[in-house]
Design the sequence.
């Protein structure tokens, strides 16, 4: 949203298969959703602002229902009608998984369908508690997401490669710990690679790296070795002395020749060709995190090159490729290959927690139901 308008309707469109299928079969479809992080009801976070955009996307009338009059308004709806209920986070108990709030939600319907994989890592009244109160099902988007993730890491075709990069190093170390036991090749790029190189005693100059995590990084490398997982760290890198577009001092260097005043901002051209060759031997790929600072030219090159390789292998039927993460998806869009991957997850946090091997409360509640 910007200035009260929907500027990206990706997540609205993601609900269409479920909503149209239910409405076409004669259900009254009530949409429960959250928007923003309101602490108390506030017009700025009202879903009334989204109703018209949703109606345009859906191509049929959509009503907006305020909680004040929910019971009366819902009672007047006819089979096939679609309505958006006001922001679930206007209830303080929503994020506390409050059973009383869940009962209020549940009282309005006969069946519960959860189509929000991206919210499944949180136990909220509208994602968890409610699933214990009504017959509960996964929607089509949730189903597609779970099927794709299961195919990529649950029972994948081997060999499996994982690419992990980006900047959120400490939050992704748990992901790596889980992955080394499950994948055949672990490709590390971005700020993550700098942390591992530094842990191995390589001087990474002024690069983004979490030097205090050296011990954890070395433990992950040891675990990888025990699990026969091959870890790929870049052996050449693109460096500069300033972090800006086409900066001075831009050069390709061997990792052992990075100057004290230089920053590693991308995986080098030789290393990325070797990574492309690794992908050619694999059947499955799961990717989170760009290989370099792809928003700033020319540090997008390695990410784009590897993304294009993965896309071509996928299109040739040789690779199942699954990617997730806000910046990762942006990078795939920049490379023009998001549609060529097998599956691109709309979820950020939920995708990462799933890669960590954690059980997602919203998914677990559906399984129990
Ligand atoms: P995602 O959103 O896909 O989970 P992250 O948020 O962890 O990914 O990381 C993305 C960010 O990492 C991007 O903004 C990118 O510029 C940055 N990045 C990648 N490699 C480097 C690097 N070598 N140095 C600094 N920043 C980097
Ligand atoms: Mg990010």
Sequence:
């Amino acid at each position: 949203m910007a200035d009260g308008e929907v500027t990206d309707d990706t997540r609205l469109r993601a609900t269409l298969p479920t909503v149209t299928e239910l409405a076409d079969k004669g259900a009254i479809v009530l949409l429960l959703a959250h928007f923003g992080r309101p602490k108390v009801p506030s017009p700025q976070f009202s879903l009334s602002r989204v109703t018209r955009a949703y109606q345009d996307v859906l191509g049929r009338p959509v009503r907006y229902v305020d909680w004040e009059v929910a019971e009366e308004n819902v009672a007047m709806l006819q089979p096939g009608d679609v309505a958006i209920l006001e922001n679930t986070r206007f209830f303080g108990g929503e994020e506390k998984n409050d059973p009383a709030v869940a009962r209020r939600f549940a009282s309005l319907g006969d069946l519960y369908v959860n189509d929000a994989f991206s919210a499944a890592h949180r136990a909220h009244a509208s994602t968890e508690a409610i699933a214990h109160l009504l017959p509960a099902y996964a929607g089509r988007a949730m189903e597609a997401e779970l099927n794709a993730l299961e195919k990529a890491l649950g029972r994948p075709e081997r060999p499996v490669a994982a690419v992990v990069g980006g900047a959120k190093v400490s939050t992704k170390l748990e992901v790596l710990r889980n992955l080394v036991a499950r994948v055949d090749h672990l490709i590390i790029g971005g700020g993550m690679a700098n942390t591992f190189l530094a842990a191995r005693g390589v001087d990474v100059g002024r690069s983004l790296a979490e030097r205090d995590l050296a011990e954890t990084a070395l433990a992950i490398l040891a675990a990888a070795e025990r699990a026969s997982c091959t870890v790929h760290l870049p052996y050449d890198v693109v460096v500069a002395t300033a972090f800006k577009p086409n900066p001075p001092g831009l050069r390709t260097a061997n990792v052992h020749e990075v100057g004290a005043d230089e920053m590693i901002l991308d995986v080098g051209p030789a290393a990325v060709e070797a990574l492309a060759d690794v992908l050619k031997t694999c059947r499955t790929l799961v990717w989170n995190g760009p290989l370099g600072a792809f928003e700033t030219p020319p540090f997008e090159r390695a990410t784009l090159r590897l993304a294009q390789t993965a896309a071509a292998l996928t299109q040739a039927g040789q690779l199942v490729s699954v990617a997730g993460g806000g910046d990762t998806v942006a990078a795939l869009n920049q490379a023009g290959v998001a549609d060529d991957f097998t599956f691109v997850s709309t979820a950020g946090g939920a995708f990462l927690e799933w890669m960590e091997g954690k059980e997602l409360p919203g998914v677990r509640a559906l399984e129990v139901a």
About this structure: The pocket of magnesium ion (ligand 2) is lined by residues 326-327 (CB under 6 Å). The chain has a mean pLDDT of 95. The CA atoms of residues 35 and 45 lie 6 Å apart. The first helix runs from residue 10 to 13.
